[in-house]
TrEMBL record:
Belongs to the UPF0053 family. It comes from the Bacteria. One of its GO terms (cellular component) is plasma membrane. It comes from Corynebacterium spheniscorum. Residues 1-186 form the CNNM transmembrane domain. The chain crosses the membrane at residues 60-83, 90-111, 123-139. It is found in: Cell membrane. This is Hemolysin, contains CBS domains. SUPFAM superfamilies: CBS-domain pair, FAD-binding/transporter-associated domain-like. It is a multi-pass membrane protein. Keywords: CBS domain, Cell membrane, Membrane, Repeat, Transmembrane, Transmembrane helix. Its main location: membrane.
Length: 443
């Protein structure tokens, strides 16, 4: 009697597992656009199927969990059946392992999934109502298990679990590109959409040191000038310091407030025209952030790190560029030498050139004895850093500073994200005055 029960449990578990495998393959394959058309045609079951597709990853996770449960049940039952039928324990376990592997692979792995892929819409429509009902009852279980699994796994894990259909969709896109259905660039864009879920805002943000901002007590005219110089149409507004972001000022609001002003907007404060800022954690996935910004009609968000400080900012353009790709401009093809002489006492250097290397190159080219103070050497490493130190903010192309007998002019253009970057620095060395030369000789 016991052997009969074990046999029935094994057979029923395998058949049920195969059925779930068929449904899983079908639900993973169907297109939402096609199901919406079926709903317009009033096909029975299409409403329930649309609800399943609204939360497709959760339903796939549930099917995988139930299938695993049935596979384990079938394996244990088959082992008990073999142990009761055979005298040798080793032989019984070996027969159970080999037999279950072959049957499970054939029935669940090949036959059931093949049937699901051959008739995906018919199977999905017939199983949608039952699947929705089961998910309503057991849905929280796979969510909790996925959460626990992500805690154990290194890295951030997958919000919807590793069983979602992204890999299969990626393969479908690759196959479509191979057969000429989609172009190479279209394939890359589709793949980029998939990558949004695993990319955080921190990875594409404008980091804090590169942010262009304005203080709230500045005037609208000054803010307009900064927008024009920096190429940005939106600027964060700071209070006491950069961690105190009090608003976002839009260029179009500045233009409205200064267009009819006789004084050029000097009487209008930035705080009067700024908008409330939007703060989001820098660990937020890009797909969720994009949806949130679209819903709230937000173009710029301030990113906060785990300690509550400002980590950087991100715009809608930054996220969209992750999909459509980077756009090169004429500046990207312009290669800058580390150090080159462009005039009798004028030189162009890359912005990241070390100050010690700058002094060495200038001394060699002009036969002088230029050196930087110890305070500068301790705090600053690069030429661009020296400009930032002198002006007290992030330098923009066109920024000029004088340091001793050096005139430094920042040069640059928009990078591939549309942000103005200082790429090179024009260094002009003034001739030493006669008094300076005399004092040097006396020394």
């Amino acid at each position: 009697m016991g052997e009969l029960i074990y046999a029935l449990v094994t057979i029923c578990a395998l058949l049920a597992s195969g059925l779930l495998g068929t449904v899983e393959a079908a639900v993973s394959t169907i297109s939402r656009a096609r199901v919406e058309q079926l709903h317009k045609d009033e096909v029975p079951g299409s409403i329930s199927l649309l609800k399943v597709l609204d939360r497709r990853p959760e339903h796939i996770n549930l099917l995988v969990l139930l299938r695993m449960l049935l596979d384990v049940t079938a394996a244990v039952s088959a082992a008990c059946l073999a142990l009761s039928a055979l005298e040798s324990t080793v032989m019984a376990i070996s027969v159970a392992i080999v037999g279950m592997t072959l049957i499970s692979f054939t029935v669940v792995g090949v036959f059931s999934r093949t049937m699901g892929r051959k008739n995906p819409y018919t199977i999905s429509l017939r199983s949608a109502l039952l699947l929705s009902g089961v998910a309503r009852i057991l849905g929280p279980i796979p969510r909790m298990l996925i959460w626990a699994g992500n805690l154990l796994a290194p890295g951030s894990g997958f919000r919807d679990g590793p069983y979602a259909t992204e890999v299969e969709l990626r393969e479908m896109v690759d196959i479509a590109q191979e057969h000429g259905v989609v172009e190479v660039e279209e394939r890359r864009m589709i793949q980029s959409v998939f990558d949004l879920a695993s990319t955080t805002a921190r990875q594409v943000m404008v980091p804090r040191p590169e942010m262009i901002w304005i203080e709230e007590e500045k005037t609208a005219g000054q803010a307009t000038s900064l927008c024009v110089r920096s190429g940005h149409s939106r600027l964060p507004v700071t209070g006491e310091n950069l961690d105190d972001i009090v608003g976002i000022v839009y260029l179009k609001d500045l233009v409205k407030s200064t267009y009819h002003a006789i004084d050029g907007g000097s009487s209008v404060k930035v705080s009067e025209v700024m908008r409330p800022p939007v703060f989001v954690p820098d660990s937020k996935p890009l797909d969720a952030l994009l949806h949130e910004m679209q819903t709230d009609h937000t173009q710029l968000a301030i990113l906060i790190d785990e300690f509550g400080g400002v980590a950087g900012l991100i715009s809608m353009e930054d996220i969209l560029e992750e999909i459509v790709g980077e756009i090169a401009d004429e500046y990207d093809d312009f290669e800058i030498a580390d150090f080159e002489q462009v005039g009798e006492r004028s030189f162009r250097t890359v912005s990241w050139l070390n100050l010690d290397d700058l002094a060495e190159n200038l001394n060699e080219a002009l036969d002088t004895d230029i050196e930087f103070d110890e305070e500068i050497d301790d705090q600053i490493e690069t030429v661009a850093g020296l400009i930032a130190y002198e002006i007290g903010r992030v330098p923009l192309p066109g920024s000029k500073v004088a340091h001793k007998n050096l005139m430094l002019t920042a040069e640059g253009a928009k990078d591939r994200r549309g942000r103005l970057r200082v790429r090179s620095v024009l260094v002009e060395v003034a001739e030493a005055s006669e008094d300076e030369e005399t004092s040097e000789e006396d020394e």
